[in-house]
Amino acid sequence: MAATTHPYVGRSIPRVEDLRLLTGGGRYGADFDIPGQLHARIVRSQVAHGRIRAIDTAAAADRSGVLAVLTAEDVPEVRIPIRLFATDNANRVLQPPLARGTVRYVGDPIALVLASDPYVAEDAAEDVLVEIEPLEVVLDPFEAASGNGVMLHPTINGNVIDRVAISHGEVSAAVRPWWPARPVSALIETSAAPYRMPPAAASICVRRCLSRSRHAPAQTEPLR
């Protein structure tokens, strides 16, 4: 049987886009300009957890070139949906586009400035005055899941949104007979303490607590 050859595996591939990028030919979102286009800037929370006491948008709205300054009071009561694995609990704590009453992380959007020029929008965003009463924060996910500290989401009476069991293979045969019949090999938990597997009947039982850094799956390449 003839060996299969792969033109792209195990070899350097000549890049075809470098000349355009290195000579300034790449076009990004900020490079597009169409008639009537508006530019937006978001005013974000500078504290990790707090209660919004006041938002003063007067100075920003009075700036020349600013068309609108929006807060949660100006937009419908909507929530940002979850793309995958939405559950009843998750739907109870969906984030609004602009914070309503409480901010829960540094960078939580509070207000939106719309202007005819991006620099005007940037300056006007700095004119928005936000008064936030700082609340207690929790920085450790295991502490957050313990239920003994700060509660971010009273609507679910805790900080753990959901527990999702994931199994592969004959897991039930590898654990002790008294363990529930439902196969369980791992538990993914939002802000959760390490999941403790019961003593296993298998000769080798490996337990790991995995974590990952914050990431944003956003496009970084030029649009064209």
- Overall structural class, as computed from helix and strand content, comes to alpha+beta
The low-confidence parts are 177-195
Determine the CATH topology of one domain. Answer: Aldehyde Oxidoreductase, domain 3
Radius of gyration in whole Å, from Cα? Answer: 25 Å
Shape: flat
* Range of strand content: 15-25%
| Total DSSP helices | 5
The helix/strand series, from N terminus to C terminus, equals: HEEHEHEEHEHEE
The percentage helix is 10-25%
Mean pLDDT: 82
Major sheet details: 3 strands, antiparallel
Please report the first level of CATH classification, the CATH class of one domain. Alpha Beta
User: Could you say what the CATH architecture of one domain is?
Assistant: Alpha-Beta Complex
CATH superfamily of one domain: Aldehyde oxidase/xanthine dehydrogenase, a/b hammerhead
Number of strands: 8
